[in-house]
């Protein structure tokens, strides 16, 4: 082969090899193959997504909660879809009734939950494409040992006298009084300022500076759900209570004159002869609020320490008529049928109560005790004087009116 032919052959081979190299370097063969794989995966993901519901169900309390609130805590909500079914049951299978919202995006139980109870929730929802989603949760509500409630007076919807304070007794020791007090609000339609006073770690009373305005309405709001009253102890109450203040009735008992003057809106409407505590068993002085009424009740001396040397009750009367409680320690305004009619208005003979003439059986409508009983309501005020005894303790019954306004407000935690 001549040199010129060899050069031409090498050039042709080089050109052919160069063409192969160019084709190899610039070809989209491998990249194109990789791109097809990615597109296929995207298409697969999209297909899978179309088979999975977009509805997003949320259940509260969250699964596994062990100290859930019993008030307004349980709920099921959904976004990007509509709820098609919700069931809530206790651990033993008892169904909990609930209500689905009109737009089918939320569900709540109809009533307050029980404490220390495990609940199971199962929810189902559909998205706009009709694809179904499911969600489940199990939670346990707060236990009695780790929660507190307040027993309050007066009752919702009641009509009471002008002296009735709001009194709340908690079933646990409250160490964070400020936190609890901030969860309690008392207001009056009269616009009177109301302050609260702690008598102990378990009792808080609230009242205005002077008696409630007659014919006003008082509202008590308890927002204690979730409030930590003591370490690891939470409130469970969330409610509003209203009560009405009736006419202004205040009665004045004078142990010296042995009379009781009953006033209404500042005017004397009745004067009644009474028999207060004897010199050996004097009646407390001060402002007292009627807290309970009994048409008939038993009074036994052993319950208040009146016993003889043998430990037997100095008295045990099983049918005391028209009894109205004035202190928690046992002071009553009550009817007396066993005493001579002549003692009323002339001699103090009781063991510390204020007695009014009455008839056995509590059905004689002509007696002073019957009149007083039927013309009194819980919350009416009785002011006792000239007995020779000490002023009743403010926490002995509902008798915080025996504290000055400054003393009362000093007992607030906020």
Detailed description of the structure:
It is a single chain. The chain has 3 domains: 87 residues, Immunoglobulin-like (Sandwich); 101 residues, Immunoglobulin-like (Sandwich); 152 residues, L,D-transpeptidase catalytic domain-like (Beta Barrel). 16% of the residues lie in helices and 36% in strands. The strands form 7 sheets. It has a 5-stranded mixed beta sheet, with no helix packed on it. A 4-stranded antiparallel beta sheet has the order 1-2-5-4, with no helix packed on it.
Summary tags:
elongated; Immunoglobulin-like; 27 strands; disordered N terminus; four-stranded antiparallel beta sheet; 414 residues; five-stranded mixed beta sheet; L,D-transpeptidase catalytic domain-like; single chain; alpha+beta; 5 helices
* Structural classification: alpha+beta
The second-level CATH architecture of the largest domain is: Beta Barrel
Q: Note poorly predicted spans.
A: 1-35
Number of strands: 27
Widest sheet, order of strands: 21-20-19-27-22
Structure described in brief:
With 414 residues, this protein is of the alpha+beta class.
How are the secondary structure elements laid out?
Elements: H1 3-26, H2 29-51, E1 56-60, E2 75-79, E3 82-90, E4 98-100, E5 106-109, E6 118-126, E7 132-140, E8 147-148, E9 150-153, E10 159-160, E11 166-170, H3 177-182, E12 184-188, E13 194-198, E14 203-208, E15 217-223, E16 228-230, E17 233-235, E18 238-245, E19 249-254, E20 259-264, E21 267-273, E22 286-289, E23 292-300, E24 316-325, E25 332-336, E26 354-357, H4 368-374, E27 381-385, H5 405-410
Parallel strand pairs: 8-17, 10-18, 19-27, 25-26
Antiparallel strand pairs: 1-2, 2-5, 3-6, 4-5, 6-7, 9-11, 11-14, 12-15, 13-14, 15-18, 16-17, 19-20, 20-21, 22-27, 23-24, 24-25
């Amino acid at each position: 082969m001549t040199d010129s032919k060899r050069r031409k052959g090498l050039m042709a081979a080089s050109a052919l090899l160069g063409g192969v190299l160019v084709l190899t370097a610039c070809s989209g063969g491998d990249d194109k193959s990789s791109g097809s794989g990615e597109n296929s995966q995207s298409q697969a993901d999209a297909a899978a997504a179309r088979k999975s519901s977009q509805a997003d169900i949320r259940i509260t309390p969250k699964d596994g909660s062990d100290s859930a609130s019993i008030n307004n805590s349980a709920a099921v909500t959904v976004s990007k879809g509509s709820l098609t079914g919700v069931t809530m049951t206790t651990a033993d299978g008892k169904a909990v009734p609930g209500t689905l919202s009109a737009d089918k995006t939320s569900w709540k139980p109809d009533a307050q939950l029980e404490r220390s109870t495990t609940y199971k929730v199962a929810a189902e929802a559909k998205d706009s494409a009709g694809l179904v989603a499911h969600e489940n949760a199990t939670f346990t509500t707060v236990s009695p040992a780790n929660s507190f409630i307040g027993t309050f007076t007066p009752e919702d919807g009641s009509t009471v006298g002008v002296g009735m304070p709001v009194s709340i007794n908690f079933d646990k020791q409250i160490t964070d009084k400020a936190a609890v007090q901030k969860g309690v609000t008392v207001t009056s339609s009269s616009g009177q300022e109301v302050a609260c006073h702690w008598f102990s770690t378990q009792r808080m009373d609230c009242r205005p500076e002077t008696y409630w305005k007659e014919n006003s309405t008082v509202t008590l709001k308890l927002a204690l759900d979730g409030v930590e009253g003591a370490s690891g102890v939470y409130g469970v109450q969330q409610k509003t209570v209203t009560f009405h203040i009736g006419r202004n009735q205040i009665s004045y008992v004078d142990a010296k004159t042995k009379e009781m003057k009953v006033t209404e809106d500042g005017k004397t409407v009745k004067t009644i002869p009474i028999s207060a505590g004897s010199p050996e068993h004097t009646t407390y002085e001060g402002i007292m609020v009627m807290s309970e009424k009994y048409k008939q009740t038993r009074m036994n001396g052993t319950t208040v320490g009146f016993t003889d040397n043998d430990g037997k009750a100095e008295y045990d009367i099983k049918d005391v008529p028209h009894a109205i409680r004035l202190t928690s320690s046992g002071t009553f305004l009550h009817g007396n049928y066993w005493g001579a009619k002549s003692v009323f208005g002339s001699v103090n003979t009781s063991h510390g109560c204020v007695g009014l003439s009455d008839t056995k059986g509590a059905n004689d409508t002509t007696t002073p005790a019957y009149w007083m009983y039927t013309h009194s309501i819980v919350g009416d005020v009785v002011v006792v004087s000239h007995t020779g005894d000490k002023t009743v303790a403010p926490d002995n019954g509902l008798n915080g009116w025996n504290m000055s306004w400054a003393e009362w407000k000093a007992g607030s935690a906020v």
